What we know:
With about 270 residues, this protein is of the alpha/beta class. It has two domains: about 70 residues, no CATH class; about 160 residues, Nucleotidyltransferase, domain 5, CATH 3.30.420. Helices cover about 50% and strands about 15% of the residues. Strands 3-2-1-4-5 form a five-stranded mixed beta sheet, sandwiched between helices. A hairpin with a 5-residue loop joins strand 2 and strand 3.
Amino acid sequence: MLCVIAGVSRSGYYKWLTYADAQEKDYGDYLLIKELFEKGKGKYGWRTLQMKLRAEQGLVMNHKKILRIKHKYHLRTTIRRRNPYKAIMRISRSHKTFGNTLNRKFQQTSPFKTFCTDITYLPFQSTVVYLSAVKDIASREIVAWDLSPHLSISIALNTIENMKQNQHIPALKDALIHSDQGVHYTSTEYVKKIQELEMVQSMSRKGSCIDNAPMESFFGHFKDDIEYKDCKTFEEVKRAVGKYIEYYNNDRRQWNLKKMTPVEYRNHLLVSRR
């Protein structure tokens, strides 16, 4: 009689009634899903929601229902997009790593033939600057360095350029330069620079800092000896670094270098090879 009064068909009424019951049931489940979804800051997908419903509510819910409720109530999951730059760097690094040609052969006797390089950070005031250096493994002399407020590829390139301009180095062709597998040394620009100089590139094994022990040793002594944390400006830090490297090369005597300075020992090795 009510269907006649309302002007609807009986089948239409029962269809609506079934739909209304489903809506009411969905709403209760929606509230549970919504609570979990908001706790996850909109990052939970259906798998995480299904696991959390079971673990925290003791409720087993079909993944199709979860997807339907999410779609129905516009609960859109925030998907972390893949970083194309990282993907490119991962691929490029896998193709630009080099073998460990040096292989911890740190007892070299020919100056300007075997070098190692690395980058370290220097915190001062409320900022950080970065020091890149190249060390001659035979003489322990620092033959090139660069200081930068930014950890960009240019710091490694500038260091190599400074090394190229070192008047004491007769030639870089066929000289070996060793580094870790950091992004600076696997970059296309750096590899190209080394190839242009016709040098041999060598790299530490992944996660093995001992493979580049000479540089680790220098940076350790450097940070113990130098006073730079009281510097107020980048230029002050740069002057302090330059002053220390000058001292290290020319005045700091080392027991393992026959009590000579790196420059004295370099000259000693060159004379003894004549």
